[in-house]
Specification:
Layout lengths: L21 E7 L8 E6 L3 E4 L6 E4 L5 E4 L2 E5 L4 E7 L5 E8 L5 E7 L4 E6 L3 E5 L6 E6 L4 E7 L2 E6 L3 E6 L5 E6 L5 E7 L4 E6 L3 E8 L7 E9 L5 E6 L6 E6 L5 E7 L9 E3 L1
Antiparallel strand pairs: 1-2, 2-3, 3-4, 5-6, 6-7, 7-8, 9-10, 10-11, 11-12, 13-14, 14-15, 15-16, 17-18, 18-19, 19-20, 21-22, 22-23, 23-24
Length: 277
């Protein structure tokens, strides 16, 4: 069993307020920094936290966190993308806000393989951004209520409130695949660029592992790999530990620990991978 240590970070609007609701947290690693920067969205605002010094800055927010090189982008309830520049170990400054959505942004995600960023709003609209976040290079509508997204190999993957995974091409906005993945809302989608693994978790307590096949001449398809149920735990977060997708963590609602999994090969040939906790 692996051993991990952690520190607790109290999240408050100011020193006199009660703790607020944390919606998302993500480590961002701008190229100009040695250590990652923790970005947190809460019910009171978006916060950047320096793990080494515990210094904090708070701004207004909504939902969705990503980064490309030295730029950090956070979604806004007004449909704006709030862009911050990291210019050294201890400097994070607000750079600009860019409006490409007419409704509140639900999520933002970037594919690390090609630095392709997509955002979605609560009305089902997708924006594909240029690398510097100055404008959207493409916009299209899904007509669906979206809860979360991720991006893999120029495909934007959306998770809906009715448990569907849908795969759209970022080149032309075409729907490429539709999967009835869960029986309740999908809360998080994680991707592993090197293996093309896709991980989805939901209120239905299920972890589902998929593999995306897009390379020609093979047909476009989404292959199911594995299921695992976490009893009595609605799942709200998921993240691969590395680009290969060999390890991942899952977060559950109202549960203070992260669930850590490894994907290991079974000995007999022809059998699928299995998950161990």
């Amino acid at each position: 069993m692996n051993s991990f240590t952690c520190n607790n970070l109290p999240i408050k609007a100011n020193d006199f307020d009660a703790p607020v609701i944390v919606l998302q947290a993500k480590y961002c690693t701008p190229v100009c920094r040695t250590f990652p920067l923790l970005v947190i969205t809460t019910s009171k605002g978006v916060m950047t936290s320096e793990p080494a010094t515990r210094s904090e800055q708070t701004y207004r927010f909504t939902k969705g966190i990503t980064y490309v090189e030295n730029l950090i982008a956070v979604g806004s309830h007004l449909g704006e993308l709030l862009v911050f520049r990291c210019s050294g170990e201890n400097s994070v400054t607000f750079k600009r806000s860019v409006q490409e959505h007419d409704f509140a942004i639900a999520d933002v995600a970037t594919c690390r393989f090609d630095d392709l960023t997509c955002s979605c709003d609560v009305s089902g609209n997708i924006a594909v951004w240029v690398k510097n976040f100055k404008s959207a290079q493409k916009k299209f509508s899904t007509g669906l209520e979206i809860n979360c997204i991720n991006v893999l190999r120029k495909q934007v993957i959306i998770g809906t409130f009715v448990g569907q995974l849908l795969f759209y091409s970022t080149l032309n906005g075409q729907l490429m695949a539709e999967v009835n993945a869960h029986v309740r809302q999908i809360n998080a989608i994680a991707v592993a660029p090197e293996s093309a693994y896709v991980l989805s978790v939901s209120d239905d307590t299920m972890i589902r592992l998929w593999k995306l096949h897009i390379r020609k001449p093979k047909i476009y398809r989404v292959e199911w790999q594995y299921n695992k149920r976490v009893e009595n735990m609605p799942l709200v977060g998921a993240q691969f530990i590395n680009g290969r997708g060999s390890d991942f963590v899952v977060a559950a609602y109202d549960y203070s620990k992260l669930l850590y999994y490894q994907i290991t090969k079974k000995l007999p040939e022809g059998l699928r991978d299995e998950l161990i906790c």
